[in-house]
Amino acid sequence: MLSVDATITRVRRDLTLSILLKALLAVAAVACFTLAGQDNARFLVLLGIGSLWFWLSINSARSSRAAAQSPSLIAAGQFEEAERNIEQSVRTFSLIRTVKLQSLHHLALLRHAQHRWQESAIFARALLSQRLGPLQPLSRSTRLLLADSLLEMNDLRGAYDAIAALHREPMSLTEMLNLLCIQLDYSARVGGWQSMLQNIMGKVQLAELLPSPLSARSQALLALAAKKAGRDDLSGWLRDRAALLADTQQLVSERPMLGELYSRLEG
After folding, report:
1. What residues have CB less than 8 Å from 263, skipping those under 6 apart?
2. 104 within domain boundaries
3. Nearest-angstrom CA–CA distance, 260 and 193
4. Cys staple from 119: which of 81, 111, 177, 221, with CB 3.0 to 4.6 Å?
């Protein structure tokens, strides 16, 4: 199993080595054209440089293809296979910077799926500390993982900072739905009931697009906010909708504050 510190150290080292190696090969190629020497020797040096570059590029492409399979393995619950796949990507040297950065994201995703919140947060922060370049859109999904992991760890300040950063970026519909879940969870923890009720029907419509367990939790949290605000009819309607989508005991076990909605009904 990949350890957190060793993995991050290795990824950072490989990123530095790839930059240095590409610079060294480029300098060597330029030197072949600028320095005096025999044409045959110059050709052999250039051939060696080209062969090394080609071999490294082939290995990098293979690693990139292997890394691309990790999210689907995680989504299918094949965590052990995903772990092996990511470990291979981490241990294989690659000239392609994005392969190593994606490995950090995949590890954050895997640890989140395994409910190993602290490790997920560490990998997410390690990725966000890097210059992402063409992978900049990946920062949004990584911040979502970070915010949710910090909430599970009850780090409300850290979760708030991650959520605030997301509001400054354009998001896809899927990202907006995930942010809704996280923001409702955060607001409930800090008692932001009135903010939860703002545009509540719009939030309910978005919640309907979520997978059933997340939709149920989101609507139950909205029901709790309505109850806290004295809107009992709205609270009952949302509470019953949530109960149709998920087992209420499961909802309460995941978020004990929801026991205020369902404890009397179950009794």
Report:
1. 252
2. yes
3. 14
4. 111
- pLDDT tens digit sequence for 153-173: 999 999 999 999 998 888 899
Q: Are residues 5 and 134 in the same domain?
A: yes
CA separation for the pair 86, 68 (Å, rounded) = 10
Q: Is 164 exposed, middle or buried (0-12, 13-18, 19+ CB in 10 A)?
A: exposed
* Alpha-carbon distances, residue 41 vs 24, 25, 28 (angstroms): 19, 16, 13
**Short-list 12, 7, 4, 6, CA closest to 90:** 7
Place of tokens 């909802």: 251
Do 131 and 222 fall within a single domain? no
- CA within 13 Å, CB half, 195: 11
User: Residues 163, 167, 171, CA angle at the centre, nearest 5°?
Assistant: 105
Residue 91 tokens read as 């241990």
Residue 7 lies in a domain: yes
212-228 vs 232-245: helix crossing angle, rounded to 10: 160
Confidence band, pLDDT 50/70/90 cuts, at residue 38: low
- Band of pLDDT at residue 42, cut at 50, 70 and 90: low
Beta carbons within 10 angstroms of residue 256's beta carbon: 9
Beta carbons within 10 angstroms of residue 223's beta carbon: 25
207-217 pLDDT, tens digit per residue, is 999 999 999 99
Q: Is residue 221 over pLDDT 90?
A: yes
Instruction: State pLDDT tens for residues 228-263.
Output: 999 999 999 999 999 999 999 999 999 999 999 987
pLDDT of residue 220: 96
CA–CA separation, 117 and 54 (whole Å): 40
